[in-house]
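Sample entry (51 residues):
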Amino acid sequence: MLSYVDPFVAILISGLLLQEQFTLLQIIGGILLLGSTFVSEMRFRKIRGKK
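Predicted structure, serialized as tokens:
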């Protein structure tokens, strides 16, 4: 689960240190990507826990 934080931290660092500007579509895409990965991981853990 901790490995999913790495891309988020990289985005924050690039925004803060490198003054990167992000568009609304990029932000929405990142949220969808991280959200779907999180849901997939939770489903996998739930299925694996039942066995």
